[in-house]
Design goal:
- Chain B: Its main location: membrane.
- Chain A has 522 residues and is α/β, with parallel strands linked by helices.
- Chain A is built from 17 helices and 24 strands.
- Chain A folds into 3 domains: 235 residues, P-loop containing nucleotide triphosphate hydrolases (Rossmann fold, 3-Layer(aba) Sandwich), CATH 3.40.50; 169 residues, Rossmann fold (3-Layer(aba) Sandwich); 78 residues, no CATH class.
- Chain B has 376 residues and is an all-alpha fold.
- In chain B, helix 5 crosses helix 11, helix 5 crosses helix 12 and helix 6 runs antiparallel to helix 11.
- Classes of the chains: A alpha/beta (522), B mainly alpha (376).
- At the A-B interface, helix 10, helix 11 and strand 20 of A face helix 9 and helix 10 of B.
């Protein structure tokens, strides 16, 4: 029996651990029938893990799942689908060279006398499309690869509805869409809830959460910080909840004595793989012995900007200069050799080769450094010594250079990367979230290192979604919102509330403002 | 979990641990025992099919290592398999699937042939021309094989064409075009078969240890030297680190300054060069002329199995190549001495490969599951 007054989904006390890492820490979430519940949080806050628990991909270590008031346990997505839960993944689960029709019915083909009953499938799909205003039925015989991402997403939703989903999980559905397509999606979401279906909407874009959702739950570091009514909250309240505060030891924040301009970014526009403009006409400069912090909610163009600086990505327009020399056309490797170190935000994929030992990882991004080769051949002895040094200096555990990177905890991986990039003696250091997932003691240590580097005259560009980190370390703070630097402020003259407002695309006094490329030089 | 299940699990863990930690020596022993075991089972199957199992097994061994001439034949096949195997391994290690070694091999051999046929008249007709002529042939083979490997590399990078498909197609194209050129332009007047004329007598590798017209220990030397160079480059140079890292984890390679597109083209070029060199060795050492590539042994395809058996490790290609060469020689010997169907011979050989590969598969499975605990 389905209890129609019970919440569509009720997660109670969900805890999910991976080894020592707690991805979800007794999280509660209640999805009311016919409502949209947004789950917001930084990357790594545990949103996707929580949804994978609900979708039967992970088994929670603790906690219970109730659907329509009935306790359930899911061993696989098959169970979740049977319970009426559908998930629209960020990366669509569609077969590119099969038609829309084939994709929708895949695995759930209606059959008559052992043959696929295509006509029945067409009728069902057309019915669904008519109910919710999809135009998917116009493309039933078109291969997926010929359709735009917006339509592909509709196909995903239709596929879930076709399988009888009552509750839909949308994992960052707007990330791949143009603004017009986002509007279309919101219309669809509204139609779905009007029909009594319930939606979980995962995003890290606060305005979208406020615009589309009824309730908003904020996750941070695996815990639910709180659930608020979308109508009664504000973007800066959400921003504060998301980035939170961490108790940090107060490092003596000695004022740097900035020297010459080391790094200049001038009018840089960067597109992502999908061709969407992520950073727009950004200009900023960093001096020797200065830390420029970039604050902003993740996904506002910071990543693409620093990839353009470090040579991972070619900007569409604009120039990047190192000590007055245009390096826009230089390869990533040349930029490393010219003294740009980079602590990447993605340590699992980019910062370390997971199957390599720490010794082999100590060479990553150092391949062409003279210190590690004698002319033709690599000097593994010296590379091994270097790995030992990093392990010693940065307190990497276990203290075993022959351990593989993947056997280390996230914090220790991060310390190893920071050590490797700092020990190269760079003239410019670009760091993305350098203390993410690192324990508090190590955070302090890494911060101390950054300040030492600043004193040694290194120009540091620090991207972090932790406001307190940016506030503490930066000499100047540039705030990015929707791809542009909206303001550059002196951290001593601005409160976290004001920064939160800027990060949410508002002026410091809370009034609406249009995002515009403000010159980043102080 | 019940006690019994826990016990099974911990036993599985222990076995997995042991397999993952096996030393090189242990692996060789494991491979030998696996071969013996497979031969035993193969013998039972042969006997059950109504043939003489003892004769079968002894012929298989005799055909490989029974006398000097059989051994020479085995080493000849092994040399080719080691060279083409290492060509495959280079590409696979970098995460590029070069299935086109056969085509690069054919094109390389053809380029070497052209070099010898066209340059020989320009040089004195005596043995002092041998070394420069063969050096020229080798260089041309490297260049042609490399170019024929680079082509699918560039097609992948600039047009998004899957290299597995393009290299397979290019195999057919190589054989077809080379056959056409041989048939139309290089066949001597009045000759029936589409073969080129014979190379000058002085072109060829001296037998030295073995009195075989088609095998020289120098050929094996070329193969082993190539393996040594590839191993050194992979393990001891920055370029090798770039290459192997690209295969393990491309985003990390890119982060560290590797240009992924250029790396794909370079990898394919190097792989093709080695395959081309194998082609030159085939033309000079084995044939002494060039003929219809469609009739050539499929070293370039067997090389894929050799490389996989070696876990794409260049050093591992040596024992793997020797095993395949030995089985090939033994199998062929059975084919023309015993009245056993060739399907049965192939079946038993397949069984041996399966048994030898199984511990490696087990090891690979161990790496991808949590069995065996943390590997630190």
């Amino acid at each position: 029996m389905t209890d129609t007054t019970a919440p569509a989904v009720q997660l109670t006390d969900i805890t999910k651990r991976f080894g020592d890492v707690v991805a979800n820490d007794s999280v509660d979430l209640t999805l009311d029938r016919g409502s949209i519940h947004a789950v917001v949080g930084e990357n790594g806050a545990g949103k996707t893990t929580l949804m994978n628990v609900l979708y039967g991909l992970y088994e929670p270590n603790e906690g219970t799942i109730a659907v329509d008031g009935e306790p359930r346990s899911f061993d696989s997505p098959r169970d979740a689908i049977a319970a009426g839960i559908g998930m629209i993944h960020q990366h669509f689960q569609l077969v590119d060279n099969m038609t829309v029709l084939q994709n929708v019915v895949l695995g759930h083909e209606p059959s008559s006398r052992g043959l696929v009953d295509e006509q029945a499938a067409r009728r069902r799909i057309t019915e669904i499309c008519d109910t919710y205003g999809f135009s998917v039925d116009e493309h039933l015989d078109t291969p997926i690869e010929e359709l735009g991402l917006g339509i592909q997403q509709h196909v995903e939703i239709v596929k879930s509805l076709y399988r009888g989903a009552d509750t839909l999980i949308l994992d960052e559905p707007t990330a791949v869409l143009t603004p017009q397509e986002v509007e279309g999606l919101f219309d669809v979401m509204e139609a779905l809830t009007a029909d009594g279906r319930s939606l979980i909407f995962i995003t890290h874009k606060l305005d979208e959460a406020m615009h589309a959702a009824d309730d908003i739950t904020v996750l941070r570091d695996g815990s639910a910080v709180g659930t608020v009514d979308a109508a009664e909250t504000s973007q800066n309240e959400l921003a504060r909840m998301m980035v939170g505060r961490e108790v940090l030891f107060d490092v003596d924040s000695a004022e740097g004595t900035p020297g010459e301009v080391a790094l200049t970014v001038d009018g840089v526009t960067v597109r992502d793989e999908r061709g969407l403009e992520q950073a727009r006409d950004v200009s900023l400069s960093v001096r020797e012995g200065e830390i420029l912090g970039i604050a902003g909610v993740e996904g506002n163009g910071q990543q693409e900007l620093i990839e353009a600086i470090t040579g991972m990505r070619t900007p569409e327009r604009g120039t990047v200069s190192l000590q007055g020399r245009d390096i826009t056309e230089l390869s990533r490797r040349r930029r490393i050799e010219d003294g740009i170190s980079y602590v990447p935000g993605d340590r699992l994929e980019e910062g370390l080769v997971q199957d390599y030992t720490l010794v082999r990882n100590a060479l990553l991004s150092n391949q062409t450094m003279d210190a590690f080769s004698d002319g033709l051949f690599l000097d593994w002895q010296r590379i091994g010594d270097h790995a030992d040094e990093i392990i010693d200096e940065y307190d990497v555990r276990p203290r075993n250079p022959e351990a593989t990177a993947k056997s280390l905890s996230g914090g220790n991986q991060q310390k190893f990367i920071v050590g490797r990039e700092l020990e190269r003696d760079p003239s410019v250091l670009v760091a993305a979230h350098p203390t993410r997932g690192v324990d508090i003691g190590s955070i302090e240590f890494i911060h101390q290192r950054f300040q030492d580097m600043r004193e040694a005259g290194v120009a540091i560009l620090l991207v972090s979604s932790k406001l307190d980190e940016v506030q503490k370390l930066s000499d100047r703070t540039a705030v990015m919102y929707e791809g542009s630097v909206v303001d550059t402020v002196d951290p001593d003259d601005v409160t976290e509330e004001e920064l939160g407002l800027l990060m949410a695309g508002r002026a410091r006094d809370g009034t609406e403002r249009a995002a515009s490329g403000v010159e980043g030089d102080a | 979990m019940s006690d019994a299940a826990t016990g099974v699990r911990s036993l599985a863990d222990r076995i997995a641990d042991h397999m993952l930690d096996a030393s090189v020596l242990e692996r060789v022993v494991i491979a030998l025992v696996a071969t013996a075991l497979a031969l035993l089972i193969g013998a039972v199957i042969v006997a059950a099919s109504g043939y003489d199992a003892v004769e079968f097994v002894s012929s298989l061994v005799y055909g490989a290592v029974g006398n000097a001439s059989n051994l020479a034949f085995m080493l000849r096949q092994s040399s080719m398999l080691i060279l083409t195997g290492v060509a495959v391994a280079v590409a696979f290690r970098a995460g590029v699937f070069n299935i086109g070694v056969q085509g690069q091999f054919v094109v390389g051999g053809f380029a070497a042939t052209l070099g010898i046929l066209f340059a020989a008249p320009l040089l004195p007709n005596s043995s002092i021309s041998a070394v420069p002529l063969m050096a020229l042939a080798a260089l041309l083979a490297l260049a042609a094989g490399g170019a024929y490997g680079a082509l699918p590399g560039m097609m992948k990078v600039y047009a998004g064409a899957n290299e597995v498909i393009t290299t397979i197609m290019l195999n057919f194209i190589a054989s077809g075009v080379v056959y056409f050129l041989l048939d139309a332009y290089l066949r001597p007047e009045g000759a029936a078969a589409p073969n080129t004329e014979q190379f000058p007598d002085y072109v060829g590798l001296p037998g030295l240890v073995f009195e075989s017209p088609s095998f020289s220990i120098l050929g094996l030397g070329v193969a082993l030297l190539t393996v040594a160079v590839v191993y050194l480059v992979m393990d001891r140079t920055g370029f090798g680190y770039d290459l192997v890292t690209s295969g393990y984890q491309e985003p990390a390679a890119k982060y560290s300054g590797v240009d992924p597109k250029r790396m794909i083209v370079r990898t394919m070029t190097i792989s093709g060069m080695i395959a081309g060199l194998a082609g030159a060795l085939f033309a000079i050492m084995i044939l002494g002329y060039y003929s219809d590539p469609n009739t050539f042994p499929t070293f370039g395809f067997d090389a894929i199995a050799v490389s996989l058996l070696a876990a794409n490790n260049p050093l591992g290609v040596i024992p793997a190549g020797l095993l395949f060469g030995g089985l090939d020689a033994g199998g062929q010997y059975i084919g023309f001495t015993l009245d056993v169907p060739s399907e049965l011979v192939d079946g038993v050989i397949g069984l041996i490969v399966l048994f030898v590969a199984a511990p490696e598969l087990f090891r690979a499975a161990g790496r991808y599951t949590s069995l065996g605990g943390d590997r630190e």
